TrEMBL record:
The protein, known as: DNA mismatch repair protein MLH1 isoform X1
Stretches assigned to the DNA mismatch repair protein S5 domain: 230-352
Keyword set, alphabetical order: Coiled coil, DNA damage, DNA repair, Nucleus
Amino acid composition bias (Polar residues), ranges on this chain: 386-395
Annotated spans, Disordered: 1-20, 371-402
Signal sequence, renumbered to the chain: none
SUPFAM superfamilies for the chain: ATPase domain of HSP90 chaperone/DNA topoisomerase II/histidine kinase, Ribosomal protein S5 domain 2-like
Location in or out of the cell: Nucleus
Family according to the record: Belongs to the DNA mismatch repair MutL/HexB family.
CDD domains linked to this entry: HATPase_MutL-MLH-PMS-like (cd16926), MutL_Trans_MLH1 (cd03483)
A single GO molecular function term of this UniProt record: ATP-dependent DNA damage sensor activity
InterPro entries to which the protein is assigned, alphabetical: DNA_mismatch_repair_CS (IPR014762), DNA_mismatch_S5_2-like (IPR013507), HATPase_C_sf (IPR036890), Mlh1_C (IPR032189), MutL/Mlh/PMS (IPR002099), MutL/Mlh/Pms-like (IPR038973), Ribosomal_Su5_D2-typ_SF (IPR020568), Ribsml_uS5_D2-typ_fold_subgr (IPR014721)
Length: 741
C-alpha cells in the first residue's frame, strides 16, 4: 500500500502536473453566453422588441411569427425610427439612447436601458433592421451578425417607424433550439404577451399573427377604456365578470404606492389564474403577490375559481429595483410585504362586498340531461354571508401538495390510512356533484322551502359575528408570526406585545367557522380507496380504552361500531350533500370536504373523527345538527400535534424503545418481534417520518394557519379568557430590562 500509492499518484497526476492555462474567452463566445441569458426564448425576444417600439413612442405595433418564433420574428412599429448615423453601433453591446449615468437608473421611465437586447439577438440569430426617421425621403435597411453590420445600410422604401426582423433564432445554440423545438412552441406565449401589452397600453393598437395567416390572433385598436381593451382581448365573458379595484398606501413607515385594476368576481370561472401585472408601467411578475391574491380567492369564494387580475401598481421609482433580473421580468420592491398585505385586504373586502348584485349560473358540465338547464338565483343582500351564499357550482378537484397526501412507508404503524389518500381527479365525483348541484339549484327554485336550510346557517354565522372579541380580532388581523413556543403554543407579536396562542384551539375554531361558511359548497378530497368504517371505528374504540386488554370487550365494541355505522349510513345522503362527507352503502368513507385550501386533515385522526361523528352530533334539531357536525369537522381538521411523539423534544425516547411501546399492535400488526432490537436502537425510518411530520406541521402553522387566520378568524370572547391567547410580554418593558444590562 505505502509503496503503491505514490507510484499511482505520479501515474495519474502526470497529465495534471501543469495547471491548465487560463485564457481570455473569445469576445464572441462571451457575447453569445450573455445573449443566451437575455434572450431565453422566442417570447423574450418579442418582449424586448415590443418594449423598444413602445419606448420609441409607437401607436401601432404589429408582430408576425413563424415556427413559434424560431424561423422568424418580425416587429413593425410607427415610432420615431433610428438615425442613420446610429446604425453602425445599434447592435453593439451596451449601446443605448436611454441611459447615460448609473444614477439615471433610479428614475428611468423607459423599459429598456441596458442596450443589450438587440446586440444579444445578433449573437443568436440573424437581425435585419429597416427604419426611417421623420422628414426623410427614404429609409435604410441593414443586417447584423455578432453585433456588427454585415454591410453598409442600403437605402430602401419605408413607411414611418422601424421594422426589426429576427430570423433563425438560436441557429448556433443547438441544444436550446432542440429543446424549444420539442417543447410546445412559443406562439401561445407570444400571444399571451401581446395580450398583456394590449390591455395595458390602451392608446396603442396591437396585432399579432402567424406568418402567412390572414387573420390576426390578437388585434386591438386604440380604445378609450381599459375595460374595452380587456373585452377585445380576453372576450366579453371575462370583461362582464370584472370589478374595478383601487387602493393605496401613503405611509412612509410602511409603504407608499397606488394600485388600480380589475379583478374577477364570484361568477368568473377559470382553471388558471391570469395575472397581468404592471409595476410603474413595466410588465413584470411578482409570484408572492399572485399567491397572496389566490389565497384570498380560494378561501373567500366557496367554489374557488382561479382569478383574473389586471393590476397596475405605481410607486416611487427608487422603491423598485428594475435591474434585478436579466430579462427585467421579476422586480424586487421595497416594503413588499406590507404592500402585498394592503392589496390582499383590498381584494378581500371587494370580494366580500360584491355580493349585492350577483347572479349565479349553474351549469351541468357532464350530464346530457341537464346541460340545457341554467338557473339564476339572485344573490342575497348580505355581504357578511357572501362566503357561503355566493359562488358558481362548477366543481374542481382541489390540488393538494403531493407530499401531504401519500406516505410511502408501507410498514407505517400509524399511517396506513395515508394509503387511501389521493389528490383525486375524481372524474366520477365531478360528474355526480355537478349533477347534484344542478339538482339542488332546480329543487331550490321549485321548492323555496328547502332553502330554509340556510336559515340555521345564517343564524350560526350571526352567532359567530355577535360573539367576536374586537380586541382579539385586531390582534389576529395584524399580528406577525414569531415562532413556535412549544408543541401547542405559537408566539406572535402585535404592536409591542408578545402573545402566546394555542394553535390547536385556534385552528379548531377557524376550521369550524370555515366549515359553516362553506356549508354545502365544499370541494372534495377523494380517498383513493374506500376506508372501511368498521375497521376505523374499532380502531378508535380500542384507542379509547388502551389499558383494557380484555377480549370480551371486543364484542361490545363490535356492537357499538355497528350501531354507529347504521346511523351514519342513514345520514349519508345529508352528510354528502351538505358536508361532502361521503359514506357509501358498503359502509366505507370515500370522500372528505376541503375546509381550508392548501390544508388536509391528519389522516391519523380519521378513526376519532368517525367515532365522534357517530357520538357527538345532535341529529334532532337542524341548527344544532349543522353546528355539531361543523364542530366535529373543526376538531378533525384542526392542527393537532402529530401522533408520532416530537423527535425534537423529549419524544426522542420513543424512537429508541419503540419495540416495547410498539403502537403496531393497535393496528393488528403482530409481526413485530420485540427481541429483534436492542434498547438503544433507533428506528431511523420512523424517526425520519416523525421529523417530517413535525416540520411540516410547523410550516403549515406559519404558511397556512396564520394567513388564513388573519383573513377569516372571528375570535370569540371566551378566547380572551380561557388561555387561547395569553399576553406574555410587552417589548417596551423588555427593552427597559435590556437597557439596564
Ligand atoms: P435598450 O432598449 O436597452 O436601450 P436595445 O438593444 O433594446 O437597448 O436597443 C438599443 C437602442 O436601439 C435603443 O436605445 C433605441 O435607441 C434603439 N431602438 C431599438 N429599437 C428601436 C425601435 N423600434 N425604434 C426606435 N429605436 C429603437
Ligand atoms: Mg430595449
Amino acid at each position: 500500500m505505502e509503496i503503491d500509492e505514490p507510484e499511482q499518484a505520479t501515474d495519474s497526476t502526470e497529465a495534471r502536473v501543469e495547471p491548465p492555462r487560463i485564457r481570455r474567452l473569445d469576445e464572441s463566445v462571451v457575447n453569445r453566453i450573455a445573449a443566451g441569458e437575455v434572450i431565453q426564448r422566442p417570447a423574450s425576444a418579442v418582449k424586448e422588441l415590443v418594449e423598444n417600439s413602445l419606448d420609441a413612442g409607437a401607436t401601432s405595433i404589429s408582430v408576425v411569427v413563424k415556427d413559434g418564433g424560431l424561423k422568424l420574428i418580425q416587429v413593425s412599429d410607427n415610432g420615431h425610427g433610428i438615425r442613420y448615423e446610429d446604425l453602425p453601433i445599434l447592435c453593439e453591446r451596451h449601446t443605448t439612447s436611454k441611459l447615460s449615468t448609473y444614477e439615471d437608473l433610479q428614475t428611468i421611465k423607459s423599459m429598456g436601458f441596458r442596450g443589450e437586447a438587440l446586440a444579444s439577438m445578433t449573437y443568436v440569430g440573424h437581425v435585419t433592421v429597416t427604419t426611417i426617421t421623420e422628414g426623410q425621403l427614404h429609409g435604410y435597411r441593414v443586417s447584423y451578425r455578432d453585433g456588427v453590420m454585415e454591410h453598409e445600410p442600403r437605402p430602401c422604401a419605408a413607411v414611418r417607424g422601424t421594422q426589426i426582423m429576427v430570423e433563425n433564432l438560436f441557429y448556433n445554440m443547438i441544444a436550446r433550439r432542440k429543446t424549444l423545438q420539442s417543447s410546445s412552441d412559443d406562439y401561445p406565449k407570444i400571444i399571451d404577451l401581446i395580450s398583456r401589452f394590449a390591455v395595458h397600453n390602451i392608446s396603442v393598437s396591437f396585432s399579432c399573427r402567424k406568418h402567412g395567416a390572414n387573420r390576426a390572433d390578437v388585434h386591438t385598436v386604440a380604445s378609450c377604456s381599459r375595460l374595452d381593451a380587456i373585452r377585445t382581448v380576453y372576450g366579453v365573458s371575462v370583461a362582464r365578470d370584472l370589478m374595478e379595484i383601487t387602493t393605496s398606501d401613503d405611509n412612509p413607515a410602511r409603504s407608499i404606492f397606488k394600485m388600480d385594476g380589475f379583478i374577477s368576481n364570484a361568477n368568473y370561472v377559470a382553471k388558471k389564474t391570469t395575472m397581468i401585472l404592471f409595476i410603474n408601467d413595466r410588465l413584470v411578475e411578482c409570484t408572492a403577490l399572485k399567491r397572496a391574491i389566490e389565497v384570498v380567492y380560494s378561501a373567500t369564494l366557496p367554489k374557488a375559481s382561479k382569478p383574473f387580475i389586471y393590476m397596475l401598481i405605481s410607486l416611487p421609482s427608487e422603491h423598485v429595483d428594475v435591474n434585478m433580473h436579466p430579462t427585467k421580468r421579476e422586480v424586487s420592491l421595497l416594503n413588499q410585504e406590507s404592500l402585498i398585505e394592503t392589496i390582499q385586504t383590498a381584494v378581500e373586502s371587494k370580494l366580500m362586498n360584491s355580493n349585492t348584485s350577483r347572479t349565479f349560473q349553474t351549469q351541468a358540465v357532464n350530464s346530457s340531461v341537464y346541460t340545457s338547464q341554467t338557473s339564476h338565483i339572485s344573490g342575497k343582500k348580505d355581504p357578511e354571508n357572501s362566503a357561503f351564499s355566493s359562488g358558481t357550482s362548477r366543481t374542481k378537484s382541489q390540488k393538494v401538495p403531493v407530499h401531504k397526501m401519500v406516505r410511502t412507508d408501507a410498514r407505517d404503524p400509524f399511517g396506513r390510512l395515508h394509503a387511501y389518500w389521493q389528490d383525486g381527479p375524481a372524474s366520477q365525483h365531478e360528474k355526480k356533484s355537478d349533477l347534484a348541484s344542478v339538482r339542488n339549484a332546480v329543487r331550490l327554485r321549485r321548492n323555496p322551502k328547502e332553502s330554509a336550510d340556510l336559515t340555521s346557517i345564517h343564524e350560526l354565522l350571526g352567532d359567530i359575528d355577535s360573539n367576536v372579541h374586537s380586541g382579539l380580532l385586531d390582534i389576529v388581523k395584524n399580528c406577525t408570526y414569531v415562532g413556535l413556543a412549544d408543541e401547542v403554543f405559537a408566539l406572535l407579536q402585535h404592536n409591542t406585545h408578545l402573545y402566546l396562542m394555542n394553535v390547536v384551539s385556534v385552528s379548531k375554531e377557524l376550521m369550524y367557522q370555515q366549515a359553516i361558511r362553506r356549508f354545502s359548497h365544499f370541494n372534495a378530497i377523494q380517498l383513493s380507496e374506500p376506508a372501511p368504517l368498521q375497521e376505523l371505528l374499532m380502531m378508535a374504540l380500542k384507542e379509547e380504552d388502551l389499558e383494557s386488554v380484555d377480549d370480551d370487550n371486543d364484542d361490545l365494541k363490535q356492537k357499538i361500531a355497528e350501531v354507529n355505522i347504521e346511523l351514519l349510513k342513514q345520514k349519508a345522503e345529508m352528510l354528502d350533500e351538505l358536508f361532502c362527507i361521503h359514506i357509501d352503502q358498503e359502509g366505507n368513507l370515500t370522500r372528505l370536504p376541503v375546509i381550508l385550501d392548501q390544508h388536509t386533515p391528519d389522516m391519523d385522526y380519521v378513526p376519532e373523527f368517525l367515532l365522534s361523528l357517530g357520538n357527538d352530533v345532535d341529529w334532532e334539531n337542524e341548527k344544532e345538527c349543522f353546528q355539531t357536525i361543523s364542530a366535529v369537522l373543526g376538531n378533525f381538521y384542526a392542527i393537532h400535534p402529530p401522533v408520532l411523539p416530537n423527535p425534537f423534544g423529549s419524544g426522542i425516547q420513543f424512537y429508541k424503545k419503540r419495540r416495547e411501546a410498539s403502537p403496531t399492535k393497535d393496528l393488528g400488526n403482530e409481526s413485530a418481534n420485540p427481541e429483534d432490537v436492542g434498547e438503544d436502537d433507533v428506528d431511523h425510518e420512523l424517526l425520519a417520518e416523525a421529523e417530517t411530520a413535525w416540520a411540516q406541521r410547523e410550516w403549515t402553522i406559519q404558511h397556512v394557519l396564520f394567513p388564513s387566520m388573519r383573513l377569516f378568524l372571528k375570535p370569540s370572547k371566551s378566547m380572551a379568557t380561557n388561555g387561547t391567547f395569553v399576553q406574555v410580554a410587552s417589548l417596551e418593558k423588555l427593552y427597559r430590562i435590556f437597557e439596564r444590562c
